[in-house]
Each structure stands twice: as C-alpha cells, then as structure tokens.
Amino acid sequence: TPGAGGLAVSISASELSAAIAGIIAKLKKVNLKFTPFGVVLSSLIPSEIAKDDPNMMSKIVTSLPADDITESPVSSLPLDKATVNVNVRVVDDVKDERQNISVVSGVPMSVPVVDAKPTERPGVFTASIPGAPVLNISVNNSTPAVQTLSPGVTNNTDKDVRPAGFTQGGNTRDAVIRFPKDSGHNAVYVSVSDVLSPDQVKQRQDEENRRQQEWDATHPVEVAEREYENARAELEAENKNVHSLQVALDGLKNTAEGLALSDAGRHPLTSSESRFVAVPGYSGGGVHFDATATVDSRDRLNSLLSLGGAAYVNNVLELGEVSAPTEDGLKVGNAIKNAMIEVYDKLRQRLITRQNEINHAQVSLNTAIESRNKKEEKKRSAENKLNEERNKPRKGTKDYGHDYHPAPETEEIKGLGDIKKGIPKTPKQNGGGKRKRWIGDKGRKIYEWDSQHGELEGYRASDGQHLGSFDPKTGKQLKGPDPKRNIKKYL
Question: Where are the stretches annotated Disordered (predicted)?
C-alpha cells in the first residue's frame, strides 16, 4: 500500500514465476481476431479486503523482467518520452462483478519507459509511472521473491484463456523501468492497479456490459466467431472429460473384482487368509490353517452376492453343521467353517464395493457422453451460424440488420454552440480506431459520436461525467444523463 513517500516495490531477479511463464506461452498459441485475450492471475474481493484493513489495500503491484514482455532493447531507447512495444501486459479487468488482475495479449500494445533514479540508500531507487504514485524500488538479485497473497486476494488456478474485457486496464498504470547502467540491474516491467470498491466494480461491470452489447450489435460475424470458438472449446473440454471418465471406468473393470464380475468363469477370484485356532491339547498349542473363498462361475458369483457368506457356505458349498468325535475336534471344525464364512463375506463386500464403483463410473460417463452430444450439436449450430454470417453481403453494417450512422462533419453539428474538433481518445468497441470527438462550451464539454444510434454523447470535461445524448442536427437532448457512464480516463 502507498506510504507517505510513495509506493514500496521489491524486485527480485526471479520474479517471473513458472506459472506466469506458462501463461505467456499459452497466450502465444491463441488465435482470436475479434478481441484481446487474457488469463486471470488473481481475483480481488474488495469487501473482504476492507474487513482486514479499514484503510483498504489501495494498489496491486506486479513486476516482471522486461525481457519477458518485449523483444525491444529497452536500454537503447531514447531518454525523452520513450515508449516500447510489448507482447503482454498485466492489467485489471472485470468479469462477473469481480475485479481481476490478468495477463493480456492479442493486440498491439505499448507502455512508457521510465528511468529509475538512485537514492541515498544502496539498492533503492525511485521511479515515476504516469498516473501512479512514485515508486520506491528495492532490488535484490540474489534472493528469490516470495509472493504472498494479501487478505481478500484469491489465486486463480484455472488459468483459462478468455477474451479480455473492453474496459481492461481501466484502473491500471504500467511502464518499463530501466536502471542506471552502473547499477547492474536489468530493466523490469511494473504494473500498478487500483483496487476498486464493490460499488466501483459494479459501475465498471455495467459499463463493460453496455460496451459489449453495443459492439455485439454491430459485429455479427465476430460475435458468431466468438460463439463458435466458445462452443469448440467446450466440446474439446468435454471430449477430454469423456476420455478421462472412460479410462477410469476401464481401470475399474480391469481389476480382479471387475473381471470376475464380468465373467467369473474366465476370471475366477480367490481370497485366502491364514488363521490359527488355539487347542491346548494339540501339539504346538493349536491348528494353523488357510481359510479360502473362491468364486469361479456366474452362478456362484450371483449366489454369494445374494445370499451372503453364511448362507452361501451352508447351502451352496453344502457345509452343514460341524460334527466331530471330540470337543477339540468340534472346536477346530467350527473355527474353520466360521473363518471360511468370514473370508467369503469379505470377498462378497469387495465385489459389491467394486460393482458400486463401476456403476457410479458408468453413470458419470453416460452423463458426460450426453453432455458431449449436446456440445457437438451446439458446435455444429455455431459453425452454421458463423458460415451464414460470413456469407451475407458485406456492403455495410446495415446488411446485418443493424443501423450504422457515419459521423457528421463539424459544420453539420447544430444547436450546441461553438464546437471544435477534438482529438479522439475513446476506443471504439471493436478495438479498431477511436470515437470522433468534439469540444464545446469553451472546453467545458466533450461530445463523442455514437455510430450505432446516430447521437452525440455529452460529457463534462472537468470530471468526465455523462451529460446525456444529443441530436447532432438540432442540439436537442434525446436522453438524460447516465450516472454509470464516465470517460474520465480518456480525457
């Protein structure tokens, strides 16, 4: 968390964990054209963080060796206003009303390069990332970094690749930091993300949903491609699940009990236990014997399962009441018979347990196969939809059943006073280009073009708050302000 002198960051030579290295390798294999994609590292639960820290943890800092996120030689870049192209960034995004810290790739990206300045303390430097607190950096090239999760931060173990959100990076500031040459330290990438409150997360999720819906409405091919990729991935995962369950079932069926259950004639099952019955009058003080249970046919197997050990020994094996000329002989005979019953009962329980395991595994496999069949149909349907959208005439957005309104020229905008063309800053929903922008009311208002509805979206320049939607031909307000909308980060 930030202190009085800035944000404390500890950098280690081994900061890049095997998990992150695996994520970067995973991202390189993905080929999705319609959006950036990412893998969640951890999820933030602000309400839980607040319980443990009344002041609330305000920043999440991640650092990686610069060589792992860019192929450019950072040390040779010019000193003034340098930026560097990067393959991945570590940024915050929102999904299912939860803020995440994710590794993102898939689109051209660049970050500032800033120089670390030495302090009076050996091994400690300061650096300023635009938009973030001053960083107080301590460097240790010998001791591996030990990363512990703060309360309210949960590690993501799935590491699934998914499309990154439209608002990804909205509360993150990052840069590559290079150190003086005589320090001996390599450049590092540092990402600083604000921890959002539950209300802020909900507001950003609403904005994410709105922008996703707006983009989807004008990009049916890309939406169909996304749905196809999702369906294909679901089917692939279910195929792996079916295979895993089939292997498990086959393993159970190929055990000694499983083989006997399928064909006891070909795969008889025997169990034997060594026993001793004490008889003081006998040489050696008693009798040693082996109690053995065997099932070697379907009929005997079924009889044992249905009757139990005692009835099986008495009725199937026809070992009736024990008789002997002496009391010691009777004792030995009963011990042998009782031991045999006990061993048959144990064998029976092994068979019942294995049968239950096989039945459960079969039910799980059947359920997975049914699910796979549905996912196969879903994939076929998604593929047909994608082909249908791709084969439609591509004369413009209207061909897909959606309105598209080209941006007006500045002189065509009426009723909003003296407005001037501004520098576009807000990305379009498809990631290609930025929204056209105008400045009005002597710099106090900002207007951006909504091509889906043919309206001007107004914002207050001082704080980015939404002012409503306006008719470009008359300046008349068409919709009221939306308190959830704000473009402060694009001002």
Answer: 150-174, 198-219, 369-443, 457-491
CB atoms within 10 A of CB 337: 19
Q: Which two tokens stand for residue 78?
A: 């010019």
- One-letter amino acid at 362 equals Q
Give the number of other CB atoms < 10 A from CB of residue 271.
16
Q: For 269-285, how does the pLDDT look when each residue is reduced to its tens digit (9 = 90+)?
A: 999 999 999 999 898 89
User: For residue range 187-200, what is the model confidence (pLDDT) as tens digits?
Assistant: 888 888 888 888 99
How far is 99 from 90, CA to CA, in rounded Å? 13
Kindly list the catalytic residues.
453, 457, 485
Is the domain covering 410-490 a CATH 3.10.380.10 domain? yes
CA-nearest of 379, 69, 354, 34 to 238 is 379
Give the whole-angstrom CA distance, residue 475 versus residue 460. Answer: 16
Domain ranges of the chain: 2-197, 219-400, 410-490
Please give the full DSSP string across 166-191, using - where no structure is assigned.
TTTTTTEEEEEEE--GGGTPPPEEEE
Cβ-contact 490, 482 below 8 angstroms = no
Query: Which range has the worst mean pLDDT, 153-157, 181-185, 209-213, 335-339?
Result: 153-157
The architecture that CATH gives domain 219-400 is: 2-Layer Sandwich (3.30)
Is 64:15 a contact under the CB 8 Å cutoff? Answer: yes
Q: Is 106 within 8 Å of 29 (Cβ atoms)?
A: no
d(CA 25, CA 234): 21
